[in-house]
Amino acid sequence: MLTREDVEKVAGLARLKLTEEEISEMADKLSQVISYVTVLDEVDVSNVEPMAHVADVANIFREDAVRESLPREAALDNAPKSDGKYFLVPQILENA
Amino acid sequence: MDYTTIIGLEVHVQLLTKSKIFCGCANLFNPDNPNVQTCPVCLGLPGSLPVMNRKAFQLSVKTGLALNCDIASFTKWDRKQYYYPDLPKAYQISQFDLPFSADGWVDIEVPSTGETRRVRLIRAHLEEDAGKNIHDESGRGADSRVDLNRTGTPLLEIVTQPDIRSAEEARIFLEDLRLMLRYLAVSDCEMQEGSLRCDANVNLHVEENGETIPTPIVEIKNLNSFRGVEAAIEHELKKQVKAWQTDPRRMGEVPKTTVGWDANRNATFEQRGKEEAADYRYFPDPDLCPVTITQEEVDEIRSTICELPGVRRTRYVSELGLTPYDAGVIVDQGAEFASYFDEVCVTCGDGKQAANWVTQDVQRELNERKLEIGEFPVSAPVLGAVLKKVVDGELTIKSGREVFATLLSDAGDGTRISAERIDAIIADKGLGKEQDTGKIDAVIQAVLDRNAAVAEDVRNGRMQAVGPLIGQVMRELKGADAKDVRQMILDKLQG
pTM for the complete prediction? Predict the structure, then answer.
Protein backbone atom coordinates (compact mmCIF):
# COMPACT_ATOMS: atom_id res chain seq x y z
CA MET A 1 0.00 0.00 0.00
CA LEU A 2 1.13 3.50 -0.82
CA THR A 3 1.04 5.89 2.09
CA ARG A 4 0.00 9.54 2.07
CA GLU A 5 3.69 10.42 2.44
CA ASP A 6 4.57 8.42 -0.68
CA VAL A 7 1.93 10.28 -2.68
CA GLU A 8 3.02 13.65 -1.33
CA LYS A 9 6.62 12.90 -2.26
CA VAL A 10 5.77 11.79 -5.80
CA ALA A 11 3.45 14.77 -6.25
CA GLY A 12 6.20 17.10 -5.04
CA LEU A 13 8.69 15.63 -7.51
CA ALA A 14 6.15 16.13 -10.31
CA ARG A 15 5.35 19.65 -9.07
CA LEU A 16 1.70 18.75 -8.53
CA LYS A 17 -0.36 20.38 -5.82
CA LEU A 18 -3.00 17.88 -4.62
CA THR A 19 -5.93 18.51 -2.32
CA GLU A 20 -6.55 16.29 0.74
CA GLU A 21 -9.19 14.31 -1.15
CA GLU A 22 -6.93 13.91 -4.18
CA ILE A 23 -4.13 12.58 -1.99
CA SER A 24 -6.36 9.84 -0.55
CA GLU A 25 -7.78 9.06 -3.98
CA MET A 26 -4.29 8.86 -5.52
CA ALA A 27 -3.03 6.67 -2.70
CA ASP A 28 -5.81 4.18 -3.50
CA LYS A 29 -5.45 4.35 -7.27
CA LEU A 30 -1.66 4.17 -7.32
CA SER A 31 -1.77 1.25 -4.89
CA GLN A 32 -4.08 -0.57 -7.30
CA VAL A 33 -1.76 0.10 -10.22
CA ILE A 34 1.23 -1.13 -8.28
CA SER A 35 -0.49 -4.28 -7.06
CA TYR A 36 -1.50 -4.96 -10.67
CA VAL A 37 2.09 -4.80 -11.95
CA THR A 38 3.48 -6.82 -9.02
CA VAL A 39 2.32 -9.83 -10.98
CA LEU A 40 5.61 -9.33 -12.87
CA ASP A 41 7.49 -10.26 -9.70
CA GLU A 42 6.43 -13.86 -10.31
CA VAL A 43 8.61 -14.11 -13.42
CA ASP A 44 12.07 -15.54 -12.83
CA VAL A 45 14.51 -13.11 -14.47
CA SER A 46 17.64 -14.31 -12.70
CA ASN A 47 19.18 -15.39 -16.04
CA VAL A 48 17.95 -12.48 -18.13
CA GLU A 49 20.21 -9.58 -19.11
CA PRO A 50 18.70 -6.18 -18.22
CA MET A 51 17.25 -4.65 -21.37
CA ALA A 52 18.54 -1.22 -22.37
CA HIS A 53 16.14 -0.73 -25.25
CA VAL A 54 13.02 -2.46 -26.58
CA ALA A 55 14.25 -2.40 -30.16
CA ASP A 56 17.23 -4.67 -30.66
CA VAL A 57 19.31 -2.00 -32.40
CA ALA A 58 22.42 -0.06 -31.49
CA ASN A 59 24.68 2.64 -32.93
CA ILE A 60 22.20 4.98 -34.55
CA PHE A 61 24.14 8.15 -35.22
CA ARG A 62 23.78 11.37 -37.14
CA GLU A 63 26.79 13.09 -38.72
CA ASP A 64 28.00 16.32 -37.13
CA ALA A 65 26.35 18.80 -39.50
CA VAL A 66 24.52 22.02 -38.70
CA ARG A 67 20.92 22.42 -39.80
CA GLU A 68 18.80 25.49 -39.68
CA SER A 69 17.27 26.30 -36.29
CA LEU A 70 13.82 27.68 -35.60
CA PRO A 71 13.38 31.44 -35.86
CA ARG A 72 13.31 32.97 -32.40
CA GLU A 73 9.64 34.01 -32.71
CA ALA A 74 8.67 30.41 -33.40
CA ALA A 75 10.77 29.12 -30.47
CA LEU A 76 9.11 31.56 -28.07
CA ASP A 77 5.65 31.13 -29.53
CA ASN A 78 4.38 28.52 -27.05
CA ALA A 79 5.89 30.18 -23.98
CA PRO A 80 3.43 31.41 -21.34
CA LYS A 81 5.59 34.50 -20.98
CA SER A 82 8.46 36.02 -22.94
CA ASP A 83 9.99 39.42 -23.65
CA GLY A 84 10.50 38.70 -27.33
CA LYS A 85 14.10 37.51 -26.74
CA TYR A 86 13.99 35.30 -23.67
CA PHE A 87 11.58 32.89 -22.03
CA LEU A 88 10.42 34.51 -18.78
CA VAL A 89 9.84 32.40 -15.67
CA PRO A 90 9.17 33.22 -12.02
CA GLN A 91 12.43 33.74 -10.13
CA ILE A 92 14.04 30.42 -9.29
CA LEU A 93 17.10 30.58 -7.11
CA GLU A 94 17.28 32.39 -3.81
CA ASN A 95 20.73 33.50 -2.79
CA ALA A 96 20.70 33.49 0.99
CA MET B 1 43.97 20.00 15.28
CA ASP B 2 45.21 17.11 13.14
CA TYR B 3 43.32 16.68 9.89
CA THR B 4 43.56 15.76 6.21
CA THR B 5 41.89 17.79 3.47
CA ILE B 6 39.67 15.71 1.18
CA ILE B 7 38.67 17.17 -2.19
CA GLY B 8 36.91 15.61 -5.16
CA LEU B 9 36.11 17.48 -8.37
CA GLU B 10 33.34 17.22 -10.94
CA VAL B 11 34.40 18.88 -14.16
CA HIS B 12 32.05 19.71 -17.02
CA VAL B 13 33.53 20.17 -20.47
CA GLN B 14 31.66 21.27 -23.59
CA LEU B 15 32.80 19.37 -26.66
CA LEU B 16 33.97 21.06 -29.87
CA THR B 17 31.39 19.79 -32.31
CA LYS B 18 29.77 21.87 -35.02
CA SER B 19 26.25 20.83 -34.05
CA LYS B 20 24.55 19.87 -30.79
CA ILE B 21 24.56 16.37 -29.36
CA PHE B 22 21.05 15.28 -30.39
CA CYS B 23 20.04 17.71 -33.16
CA GLY B 24 21.46 19.87 -35.95
CA CYS B 25 21.37 23.22 -34.13
CA ALA B 26 24.71 25.03 -34.09
CA ASN B 27 26.96 24.44 -31.07
CA LEU B 28 28.09 28.06 -30.65
CA PHE B 29 28.57 30.38 -27.67
CA ASN B 30 26.14 33.12 -28.62
CA PRO B 31 24.87 34.95 -25.52
CA ASP B 32 24.07 38.17 -27.40
CA ASN B 33 21.49 36.41 -29.55
CA PRO B 34 19.38 34.35 -27.14
CA ASN B 35 17.10 31.57 -28.36
CA VAL B 36 18.24 31.50 -31.99
CA GLN B 37 19.89 28.04 -31.81
CA THR B 38 16.91 25.89 -30.89
CA CYS B 39 14.60 23.38 -32.54
CA PRO B 40 11.84 21.03 -31.38
CA VAL B 41 14.50 18.67 -29.89
CA CYS B 42 16.15 21.47 -27.85
CA LEU B 43 12.77 22.78 -26.76
CA GLY B 44 11.52 19.35 -25.72
CA LEU B 45 8.46 19.63 -27.94
CA PRO B 46 6.21 16.54 -28.07
CA GLY B 47 7.06 14.16 -30.89
CA SER B 48 10.65 15.28 -31.35
CA LEU B 49 13.35 12.63 -31.27
CA PRO B 50 17.01 12.96 -30.32
CA VAL B 51 19.68 11.29 -32.51
CA MET B 52 23.25 10.91 -31.23
CA ASN B 53 25.99 13.01 -32.87
CA ARG B 54 28.73 10.59 -33.96
CA LYS B 55 31.47 13.17 -33.52
CA ALA B 56 30.41 13.92 -29.93
CA PHE B 57 30.73 10.24 -29.07
CA GLN B 58 34.12 9.94 -30.79
CA LEU B 59 35.52 13.02 -29.00
CA SER B 60 34.28 11.54 -25.73
CA VAL B 61 36.06 8.24 -26.31
CA LYS B 62 39.23 10.11 -27.32
CA THR B 63 39.11 12.04 -24.06
CA GLY B 64 38.37 8.93 -22.02
CA LEU B 65 41.43 7.23 -23.49
CA ALA B 66 43.67 10.23 -22.78
CA LEU B 67 42.40 10.14 -19.19
CA ASN B 68 43.51 6.49 -18.96
CA CYS B 69 39.92 5.30 -18.59
CA ASP B 70 38.55 1.91 -19.61
CA ILE B 71 36.17 2.33 -22.53
CA ALA B 72 32.94 0.34 -22.17
CA SER B 73 32.07 -1.89 -25.13
CA PHE B 74 28.37 -1.22 -24.39
CA THR B 75 26.97 2.08 -23.16
CA LYS B 76 23.54 3.68 -22.95
CA TRP B 77 21.80 6.93 -22.04
CA ASP B 78 19.36 7.56 -19.21
CA ARG B 79 16.88 10.22 -18.22
CA LYS B 80 17.70 12.22 -15.11
CA GLN B 81 14.44 13.83 -14.02
CA TYR B 82 14.26 17.23 -12.41
CA TYR B 83 12.32 20.44 -12.89
CA TYR B 84 14.28 23.52 -13.73
CA PRO B 85 13.45 26.21 -16.31
CA ASP B 86 16.73 25.71 -18.19
CA LEU B 87 15.69 22.12 -18.92
CA PRO B 88 12.53 22.19 -21.04
CA LYS B 89 11.98 18.41 -21.14
CA ALA B 90 12.09 18.26 -17.31
CA TYR B 91 14.78 15.60 -17.70
CA GLN B 92 18.39 15.66 -18.78
CA ILE B 93 19.71 12.96 -21.06
CA SER B 94 22.74 11.67 -19.19
CA GLN B 95 24.43 8.38 -18.34
CA PHE B 96 23.71 6.57 -15.11
CA ASP B 97 24.88 2.99 -14.56
CA LEU B 98 26.70 2.29 -17.82
CA PRO B 99 28.90 5.33 -18.65
CA PHE B 100 31.08 5.06 -21.76
CA SER B 101 34.26 5.26 -19.66
CA ALA B 102 35.41 4.61 -16.10
CA ASP B 103 38.46 4.06 -13.86
CA GLY B 104 41.04 6.49 -15.18
CA TRP B 105 43.75 8.67 -13.67
CA VAL B 106 45.74 11.85 -14.18
CA ASP B 107 49.18 12.51 -12.69
CA ILE B 108 49.90 16.05 -11.55
CA GLU B 109 53.16 17.70 -10.47
CA VAL B 110 52.87 19.87 -7.37
CA PRO B 111 55.65 22.48 -7.41
CA SER B 112 55.31 23.50 -3.75
CA THR B 113 56.08 19.96 -2.57
CA GLY B 114 57.94 18.63 -5.62
CA GLU B 115 55.61 15.63 -5.52
CA THR B 116 53.90 13.78 -8.37
CA ARG B 117 50.36 12.96 -7.29
CA ARG B 118 47.96 10.58 -8.98
CA VAL B 119 44.32 11.69 -9.08
CA ARG B 120 42.09 8.71 -9.86
CA LEU B 121 38.99 9.27 -11.97
CA ILE B 122 35.75 7.46 -11.17
CA ARG B 123 34.24 8.00 -14.60
CA ALA B 124 33.67 10.29 -17.54
CA HIS B 125 30.22 10.28 -19.12
CA LEU B 126 28.50 12.08 -21.97
CA GLU B 127 25.35 14.14 -21.44
CA GLU B 128 23.55 17.20 -22.77
CA ASP B 129 24.09 20.67 -21.34
CA ALA B 130 21.10 22.67 -20.08
CA GLY B 131 20.15 26.20 -21.09
CA LYS B 132 21.13 29.34 -19.23
CA ASN B 133 19.07 31.16 -16.62
CA ILE B 134 19.69 34.84 -16.05
CA HIS B 135 18.38 35.92 -12.68
CA ASP B 136 17.16 39.34 -11.68
CA GLU B 137 19.79 40.67 -9.29
CA SER B 138 17.92 43.75 -8.14
CA GLY B 139 16.38 41.76 -5.29
CA ARG B 140 12.90 42.79 -6.39
CA GLY B 141 12.11 39.26 -7.49
CA ALA B 142 11.52 40.01 -11.16
CA ASP B 143 11.23 37.13 -13.62
CA SER B 144 14.27 35.08 -14.56
CA ARG B 145 15.17 35.06 -18.25
CA VAL B 146 15.93 31.77 -19.98
CA ASP B 147 18.16 31.33 -23.04
CA LEU B 148 18.04 27.84 -24.57
CA ASN B 149 20.90 28.29 -27.08
CA ARG B 150 23.10 26.12 -24.85
CA THR B 151 20.51 23.37 -24.39
CA GLY B 152 21.81 20.17 -25.94
CA THR B 153 25.46 21.17 -26.16
CA PRO B 154 27.50 17.95 -25.83
CA LEU B 155 28.88 17.91 -22.30
CA LEU B 156 31.44 15.59 -20.77
CA GLU B 157 31.29 15.14 -17.02
CA ILE B 158 34.57 14.00 -15.49
CA VAL B 159 34.40 12.87 -11.85
CA THR B 160 37.50 12.38 -9.70
CA GLN B 161 37.94 10.23 -6.63
CA PRO B 162 38.42 12.36 -3.50
CA ASP B 163 42.18 12.13 -4.04
CA ILE B 164 42.99 15.84 -4.03
CA ARG B 165 44.61 17.11 -0.84
CA SER B 166 44.83 20.90 -1.18
CA ALA B 167 43.30 23.86 -2.98
CA GLU B 168 46.60 24.20 -4.89
CA GLU B 169 46.37 20.59 -6.12
CA ALA B 170 42.79 21.22 -7.26
CA ARG B 171 43.92 24.22 -9.32
CA ILE B 172 46.87 22.32 -10.82
CA PHE B 173 44.65 19.35 -11.68
CA LEU B 174 42.26 21.63 -13.49
CA GLU B 175 45.02 23.53 -15.31
CA ASP B 176 46.63 20.28 -16.45
CA LEU B 177 43.27 18.88 -17.49
CA ARG B 178 42.53 21.98 -19.55
CA LEU B 179 45.92 21.85 -21.27
CA MET B 180 45.39 18.18 -22.09
CA LEU B 181 41.88 18.77 -23.45
CA ARG B 182 43.24 21.56 -25.63
CA TYR B 183 46.00 19.31 -26.98
CA LEU B 184 43.31 16.76 -27.77
CA ALA B 185 41.29 19.52 -29.51
CA VAL B 186 38.12 18.14 -27.93
CA SER B 187 37.14 21.42 -26.23
CA ASP B 188 38.18 25.04 -26.31
CA CYS B 189 37.95 25.08 -22.50
CA GLU B 190 37.04 28.77 -22.27
CA MET B 191 36.20 29.10 -18.59
CA GLN B 192 34.81 32.61 -19.16
CA GLU B 193 32.33 31.22 -21.64
CA GLY B 194 31.46 28.22 -19.47
CA SER B 195 32.90 25.55 -21.74
CA LEU B 196 34.95 24.31 -18.74
CA ARG B 197 33.22 24.41 -15.35
CA CYS B 198 34.00 22.80 -12.05
CA ASP B 199 32.22 21.76 -8.84
CA ALA B 200 34.29 20.86 -5.78
CA ASN B 201 33.29 18.54 -2.93
CA VAL B 202 35.25 19.44 0.19
CA ASN B 203 35.49 17.98 3.69
CA LEU B 204 38.01 17.05 6.37
CA HIS B 205 39.20 13.81 7.92
CA VAL B 206 39.89 14.83 11.51
CA GLU B 207 42.24 12.65 13.58
CA GLU B 208 41.08 12.58 17.19
CA ASN B 209 41.79 10.04 19.94
CA GLY B 210 43.06 7.52 17.40
CA GLU B 211 39.91 7.85 15.29
CA THR B 212 39.51 9.28 11.78
CA ILE B 213 36.32 11.34 11.70
CA PRO B 214 34.95 12.58 8.35
CA THR B 215 33.14 15.94 8.54
CA PRO B 216 30.03 16.80 6.46
CA ILE B 217 30.72 17.39 2.75
CA VAL B 218 30.15 20.82 1.25
CA GLU B 219 29.75 21.08 -2.52
CA ILE B 220 30.90 24.34 -4.13
CA LYS B 221 29.05 24.80 -7.43
CA ASN B 222 29.99 26.39 -10.74
CA LEU B 223 33.55 27.53 -10.26
CA ASN B 224 34.54 29.22 -13.48
CA SER B 225 38.14 30.33 -13.04
CA PHE B 226 41.34 28.70 -11.80
CA ARG B 227 41.76 31.40 -9.19
CA GLY B 228 38.13 30.87 -8.16
CA VAL B 229 38.69 27.14 -7.65
CA GLU B 230 41.71 27.71 -5.43
CA ALA B 231 40.22 30.63 -3.49
CA ALA B 232 36.82 28.99 -2.94
CA ILE B 233 38.32 25.74 -1.64
CA GLU B 234 40.79 27.63 0.56
CA HIS B 235 37.90 29.65 1.98
CA GLU B 236 35.74 26.56 2.53
CA LEU B 237 38.56 24.69 4.30
CA LYS B 238 39.11 27.54 6.75
CA LYS B 239 35.39 27.58 7.46
CA GLN B 240 35.29 23.84 8.09
CA VAL B 241 38.30 23.91 10.43
CA LYS B 242 36.67 26.68 12.43
CA ALA B 243 33.34 24.83 12.43
CA TRP B 244 35.04 21.72 13.84
CA GLN B 245 36.69 23.76 16.59
CA THR B 246 33.47 25.50 17.66
CA ASP B 247 30.73 22.94 16.94
CA PRO B 248 32.15 19.58 15.77
CA ARG B 249 29.81 17.68 13.43
CA ARG B 250 30.43 14.34 11.77
CA MET B 251 29.42 13.37 8.29
CA GLY B 252 25.78 12.26 8.34
CA GLU B 253 24.80 14.44 11.30
CA VAL B 254 23.81 17.29 9.01
CA PRO B 255 22.75 17.04 5.34
CA LYS B 256 25.26 17.76 2.59
CA THR B 257 25.20 21.48 1.76
CA THR B 258 25.57 23.17 -1.58
CA VAL B 259 27.16 26.60 -1.83
CA GLY B 260 27.97 29.05 -4.57
CA TRP B 261 31.14 31.13 -4.84
CA ASP B 262 31.02 34.92 -4.96
CA ALA B 263 34.38 35.95 -6.42
CA ASN B 264 33.77 39.63 -5.75
CA ARG B 265 33.11 39.21 -2.04
CA ASN B 266 35.58 36.29 -1.77
CA ALA B 267 32.97 34.27 0.11
CA THR B 268 30.65 31.31 -0.35
CA PHE B 269 26.87 31.62 -0.06
CA GLU B 270 24.40 28.85 0.64
CA GLN B 271 22.15 27.69 -2.19
CA ARG B 272 18.85 25.99 -1.77
CA GLY B 273 18.91 22.55 -3.37
CA LYS B 274 17.04 21.82 -6.61
CA GLU B 275 15.15 19.09 -4.74
CA GLU B 276 14.90 18.68 -0.99
CA ALA B 277 16.83 15.47 -1.43
CA ALA B 278 18.06 14.55 -4.90
CA ASP B 279 15.70 11.96 -6.36
CA TYR B 280 16.38 11.88 -10.07
CA ARG B 281 14.53 8.60 -10.81
CA TYR B 282 16.94 7.63 -13.61
CA PHE B 283 15.69 5.20 -16.24
CA PRO B 284 16.96 4.23 -19.69
CA ASP B 285 15.93 6.76 -22.34
CA PRO B 286 13.69 4.90 -24.80
CA ASP B 287 14.36 7.56 -27.47
CA LEU B 288 18.02 6.64 -27.82
CA CYS B 289 19.67 3.38 -28.80
CA PRO B 290 22.64 2.00 -26.91
CA VAL B 291 26.12 2.35 -28.43
CA THR B 292 28.59 -0.47 -28.79
CA ILE B 293 32.24 -0.06 -29.70
CA THR B 294 34.79 -2.66 -30.78
CA GLN B 295 38.44 -2.85 -29.76
CA GLU B 296 39.42 -1.94 -33.35
CA GLU B 297 37.31 1.21 -33.22
CA VAL B 298 38.83 2.14 -29.85
CA ASP B 299 42.33 1.59 -31.24
CA GLU B 300 41.52 3.73 -34.27
CA ILE B 301 40.45 6.61 -32.02
CA ARG B 302 43.52 6.06 -29.84
CA SER B 303 45.73 6.49 -32.90
CA THR B 304 44.40 10.05 -33.34
CA ILE B 305 45.71 11.14 -29.94
CA CYS B 306 48.75 13.41 -30.24
CA GLU B 307 51.69 13.45 -27.85
CA LEU B 308 50.17 14.81 -24.63
CA PRO B 309 51.62 17.60 -22.45
CA GLY B 310 52.98 15.38 -19.66
CA VAL B 311 54.79 13.04 -22.04
CA ARG B 312 56.11 15.98 -24.02
CA ARG B 313 57.48 17.76 -20.96
CA THR B 314 59.32 14.62 -19.90
CA ARG B 315 60.76 14.09 -23.38
CA TYR B 316 62.02 17.68 -23.63
CA VAL B 317 63.89 17.29 -20.36
CA SER B 318 65.24 13.75 -20.74
CA GLU B 319 65.93 13.65 -24.50
CA LEU B 320 66.64 17.27 -25.43
CA GLY B 321 68.26 18.33 -22.16
CA LEU B 322 65.96 21.31 -21.62
CA THR B 323 65.41 22.65 -18.12
CA PRO B 324 62.02 21.65 -16.66
CA TYR B 325 61.20 25.37 -16.69
CA ASP B 326 61.85 25.80 -20.45
CA ALA B 327 60.06 22.53 -21.21
CA GLY B 328 57.05 23.82 -19.26
CA VAL B 329 57.06 27.18 -21.02
CA ILE B 330 56.97 25.49 -24.45
CA VAL B 331 54.38 22.83 -23.56
CA ASP B 332 52.06 25.32 -21.83
CA GLN B 333 51.79 27.37 -25.04
CA GLY B 334 49.72 24.61 -26.60
CA ALA B 335 50.07 21.84 -29.16
CA GLU B 336 50.70 24.08 -32.15
CA PHE B 337 53.51 25.99 -30.44
CA ALA B 338 55.12 22.79 -29.16
CA SER B 339 54.97 21.31 -32.68
CA TYR B 340 56.63 24.45 -34.05
CA PHE B 341 59.39 24.00 -31.49
CA ASP B 342 59.73 20.30 -32.39
CA GLU B 343 60.20 21.15 -36.06
CA VAL B 344 62.76 23.89 -35.37
CA CYS B 345 64.56 21.46 -33.12
CA VAL B 346 64.67 18.67 -35.70
CA THR B 347 65.84 21.05 -38.47
CA CYS B 348 68.68 22.62 -36.47
CA GLY B 349 69.58 19.55 -34.43
CA ASP B 350 70.05 21.39 -31.12
CA GLY B 351 67.23 21.37 -28.55
CA LYS B 352 68.68 24.01 -26.25
CA GLN B 353 69.37 26.43 -29.09
CA ALA B 354 65.87 25.86 -30.47
CA ALA B 355 64.34 26.35 -27.01
CA ASN B 356 66.21 29.63 -26.45
CA TRP B 357 65.03 31.10 -29.73
CA VAL B 358 61.49 29.84 -29.54
CA THR B 359 60.89 30.88 -25.93
CA GLN B 360 62.65 34.24 -26.29
CA ASP B 361 62.81 35.65 -29.83
CA VAL B 362 59.72 33.99 -31.29
CA GLN B 363 57.60 34.46 -28.19
CA ARG B 364 58.58 38.13 -27.93
CA GLU B 365 57.59 38.78 -31.55
CA LEU B 366 54.31 36.90 -31.10
CA ASN B 367 53.46 39.02 -28.06
CA GLU B 368 54.41 42.27 -29.78
CA ARG B 369 52.51 41.45 -32.93
CA LYS B 370 49.62 39.78 -31.06
CA LEU B 371 49.89 36.74 -33.31
CA GLU B 372 49.24 33.05 -32.79
CA ILE B 373 52.07 30.72 -33.75
CA GLY B 374 50.08 29.53 -36.77
CA GLU B 375 50.15 33.08 -38.16
CA PHE B 376 53.86 33.69 -37.51
CA PRO B 377 55.60 34.69 -40.75
CA VAL B 378 58.84 32.81 -40.05
CA SER B 379 57.90 29.17 -40.38
CA ALA B 380 59.57 26.44 -38.35
CA PRO B 381 61.70 25.08 -41.25
CA VAL B 382 63.00 28.61 -41.99
CA LEU B 383 63.90 29.38 -38.38
CA GLY B 384 65.36 25.88 -38.15
CA ALA B 385 67.56 26.59 -41.19
CA VAL B 386 68.87 29.84 -39.62
CA LEU B 387 69.65 28.03 -36.39
CA LYS B 388 71.35 25.19 -38.26
CA LYS B 389 73.86 27.75 -39.55
CA VAL B 390 74.39 28.97 -35.98
CA VAL B 391 74.79 25.43 -34.70
CA ASP B 392 77.23 24.61 -37.53
CA GLY B 393 79.29 27.71 -36.76
CA GLU B 394 78.52 29.46 -40.06
CA LEU B 395 76.68 32.29 -38.28
CA THR B 396 77.27 33.91 -34.91
CA ILE B 397 74.23 34.13 -32.61
CA LYS B 398 74.28 37.88 -33.09
CA SER B 399 74.23 37.57 -36.88
CA GLY B 400 71.54 34.90 -36.59
CA ARG B 401 69.39 37.44 -34.75
CA GLU B 402 69.98 39.95 -37.55
CA VAL B 403 68.94 37.41 -40.18
CA PHE B 404 65.83 36.63 -38.11
CA ALA B 405 64.98 40.34 -37.80
CA THR B 406 65.46 40.84 -41.55
CA LEU B 407 63.25 37.86 -42.35
CA LEU B 408 60.56 39.35 -40.16
CA SER B 409 60.77 42.83 -41.67
CA ASP B 410 60.76 41.28 -45.17
CA ALA B 411 57.54 39.54 -44.18
CA GLY B 412 56.11 42.95 -43.31
CA ASP B 413 56.81 44.04 -46.92
CA GLY B 414 54.95 41.02 -48.19
CA THR B 415 58.13 39.29 -49.42
CA ARG B 416 57.64 35.55 -49.39
CA ILE B 417 59.87 34.00 -46.80
CA SER B 418 61.62 30.85 -47.81
CA ALA B 419 64.79 29.20 -46.65
CA GLU B 420 66.54 30.48 -49.81
CA ARG B 421 66.10 34.04 -48.54
CA ILE B 422 68.47 33.25 -45.68
CA ASP B 423 71.56 32.94 -47.90
CA ALA B 424 70.61 36.08 -49.80
CA ILE B 425 70.32 38.07 -46.57
CA ILE B 426 73.61 36.75 -45.27
CA ALA B 427 75.36 37.70 -48.53
CA ASP B 428 73.69 41.15 -48.73
CA LYS B 429 74.61 42.13 -45.21
CA GLY B 430 77.96 40.41 -45.03
CA LEU B 431 76.81 38.42 -42.03
CA GLY B 432 78.57 35.20 -42.91
CA LYS B 433 80.92 34.29 -40.13
CA GLU B 434 84.38 35.59 -41.03
CA GLN B 435 86.60 32.54 -40.96
CA ASP B 436 89.59 34.07 -42.76
CA THR B 437 91.87 34.54 -39.74
CA GLY B 438 94.40 36.43 -41.86
CA LYS B 439 91.78 39.05 -42.65
CA ILE B 440 90.65 39.28 -39.01
CA ASP B 441 94.26 39.58 -37.95
CA ALA B 442 94.88 42.48 -40.36
CA VAL B 443 91.84 44.39 -39.08
CA ILE B 444 92.88 43.84 -35.45
CA GLN B 445 96.39 45.07 -36.20
CA ALA B 446 95.01 48.21 -37.84
CA VAL B 447 92.73 48.90 -34.83
CA LEU B 448 95.58 48.39 -32.38
CA ASP B 449 97.78 50.76 -34.39
CA ARG B 450 95.13 53.47 -34.30
CA ASN B 451 94.60 53.00 -30.54
CA ALA B 452 98.13 52.58 -29.25
CA ALA B 453 97.35 54.13 -25.85
CA VAL B 454 94.38 51.83 -25.20
CA ALA B 455 96.39 48.83 -26.34
CA GLU B 456 99.06 49.82 -23.86
CA ASP B 457 96.46 49.90 -21.05
CA VAL B 458 95.42 46.35 -21.87
CA ARG B 459 99.05 45.28 -22.00
CA ASN B 460 99.37 46.70 -18.47
CA GLY B 461 96.46 44.59 -17.28
CA ARG B 462 93.57 47.04 -17.51
CA MET B 463 91.33 44.39 -18.99
CA GLN B 464 88.17 46.51 -19.27
CA ALA B 465 89.94 48.55 -21.96
CA VAL B 466 89.68 45.60 -24.36
CA GLY B 467 85.93 46.13 -24.93
CA PRO B 468 86.17 49.26 -27.13
CA LEU B 469 88.87 47.54 -29.21
CA ILE B 470 86.60 44.55 -29.87
CA GLY B 471 83.82 46.97 -30.78
CA GLN B 472 85.92 48.67 -33.43
CA VAL B 473 86.98 45.38 -34.97
CA MET B 474 83.39 44.12 -35.05
CA ARG B 475 82.21 47.26 -36.82
CA GLU B 476 84.55 46.45 -39.67
CA LEU B 477 83.97 42.71 -39.65
CA LYS B 478 80.31 42.04 -39.05
CA GLY B 479 80.52 38.29 -39.36
CA ALA B 480 83.37 37.84 -36.92
CA ASP B 481 82.79 36.09 -33.64
CA ALA B 482 83.32 38.56 -30.80
CA LYS B 483 84.71 35.87 -28.51
CA ASP B 484 87.31 34.85 -31.10
CA VAL B 485 88.23 38.49 -31.69
CA ARG B 486 88.73 39.09 -27.97
CA GLN B 487 90.99 36.07 -27.72
CA MET B 488 93.03 37.16 -30.77
CA ILE B 489 93.49 40.69 -29.36
CA LEU B 490 94.62 39.30 -26.02
CA ASP B 491 96.98 36.86 -27.72
CA LYS B 492 98.51 39.75 -29.65
CA LEU B 493 98.93 42.06 -26.66
CA GLN B 494 99.96 39.54 -24.07
CA GLY B 495 101.65 36.97 -26.26
Answer: 0.86
